[in-house]
Amino acid sequence: MVYGYFNNDNSRDLVVLNQDDNSVNILLGKKDGNFPTEITFITGNTPFALKVADLNYDGVPDLAVTNENSQSISVLIGNALGNFESQTQYSVGNDPHALIFDYFNNDTHLDAVVSNYYDSTISMLLGNDDGTFQDQIVQAVGTQPSGLTSGDFNNDSILDAAVTNQGDNTINVLISNGNGTFQVVGTYQIGNGSDSLVSHDFNNDELLDLAVVNFYETTVSILLGNGDGTFQQSVYYQAGPSPNSIISADFNNDNQNDLIVANWQANTVSVLFGDGHGHFLTLAAYDAGNTTSSVIVADFNNDNMLDLAVADYTGETISVLIRWANGSVQPKVQYAAGNQPRSMVTTDFNGDNNTDLIAANLGDNNLMLMLGNGDGTLQGRLTYMIPQASNSLAVGNMKNDNKSILILTNQNNTVEILSNCSYGTFQTTLMFATGRNPSSALLYDFNNDKTLDLLVTNMNDNSVSVLLILGNGTVQNEMKFQTGRKPISLISGDFNSDNKMDLAVTNYDGRNISVLLGNENGTFQPQTMYTSGINPNCVISVDLNNDGILDLVVANQGDNTVSILLGNRNGIFQTQMKYNVGSGPSVVATADFNLDNKMDIAVVNQYSNNIDIMFGDKNMAFLTRQFFPTGISPSIILVDDFNNNEKPDLAVINKLSNNLMIFLNSCP
């Protein structure tokens, strides 16, 4: 994929290859970053690489395409109206991959260099002034050459070339003789599956350096140039899985060259931010569709900030990621977690006034603590082994000492309280028996003795356990209150405005919600049931319509809906309003995400692997929606301010990807 100004309207247009159709599509752009018009042109067989250049010097950009199965390149001359003349094909080697244009023989006519994958050669086609090319000059290079770039690597004012060789994991540096031929003066080892490469000055020494993606190693190789045509040995930086395309640009406006990498297997784009000394410090990842095959940067919406466009190979789509004023793009940062992360909480665990995050990993029987830096990023993992596999995790403060405690519901029918020692370490202090298969827990002072009490849902007993905790840390006898079938989630709130805390419980097998009004002494009235969708999995309480009364929001995993039950001041809820969402909604959260003083809803769709943001309005219609891709099987979501900018951000646990993602709020 490439861009250019093909129809003289001052808006950038896109060109996309269609390998199955042997064609290219021109998408004519508008100033708002949209591409409503599409035109198709025929190429050779299996087009592979694209370049835009003014080949006949008429001020109008032209196109050139390598054709893998035609052993040729196609040249299409543009006419300034967004149209192109029929292709002219030029013979090159076997399975041509990459293509570059530059002035290699100093005659002011653009020349073409093509890498021929199965011939282990490159083809030089010297250009004429009318957009045509001379017959190829063939030169041997390493095994299975793939990527190409050009630059004056030895500072003799003649342009040189560099080629990646996938078959032997090397780069050849080719110094130009000035007549269209090259000398191979250096061969450098790089990573496995070397593919796309760029040349730029990454350490501000006015000498060109090289950056290469290594497809099979999830890395980028950096080779700093010495200015005489030689390069230093490779230094490796982490990218996403299967990186296959790379470009360089100043993406965060700090006057340093950054790297943007398309990750084929991860369906993401990684941005590696340069520090101006040849190092790359921060890795940010942005979702970009399935099997991302190519990435470019340009200002697509004319706001003087670089945006991203990414080609989706299997989804046959183009993703345009518009950058916000704060430098973020579809704002997700991904962190590795343990095996099968099941639950997650946030608070300030180490007393530095930054939001930290802790997750329980079901498959590892451990807790993973990641300390926040206050800028939306998290430090490396600290792990704590726990004796039992944990179903859920909650956080609270029992002693008013600014040290958080953790509450774990365990699969051995216990609930465990871990105290926070030394700001960021934990030890077990209390453990209590519960009902069968405790699924979620809640801390609150339900009997007004100024000590937090503990409530637990018992899925296999169809009950809620109430454990009133005394000031000395002991617990009164467990009390149980009946719920519906398989209670899985609970929330507390004053639903009837009597200053006593009440409960709402989702009954996964019952298609309903239980509401238990509180008596202030730690006991509850018999349940009242309200109809929900199928398999209600999560419930939260919030005032959605600004009437001062708590409402309920429920994720119904079985019928792909969200239910809203508006509250009345007497503790009775109205009949549900249902909204269709993605597949398998598992968790909901609320906040004013777009800062319009109306409450919005975030829904985690476990089976469609995304987040659905439902933006609130005065009519409770939630007509405006926005989806954000996640990892595989997202199961937990939390709202917090991770970068201290007073805007609600999101953290998501992906159970089958074994990672967590931070979505920073980019609302201006």
Automatic annotation (TrEMBL):
Keywords annotated in UniProt: Signal
Family matches, as InterPro entries: FG-GAP, Integrin_alpha_N
Alphabetical list of Gene3D superfamilies matching this protein: 2.30.30.100
The protein's name: VCBS repeat-containing protein
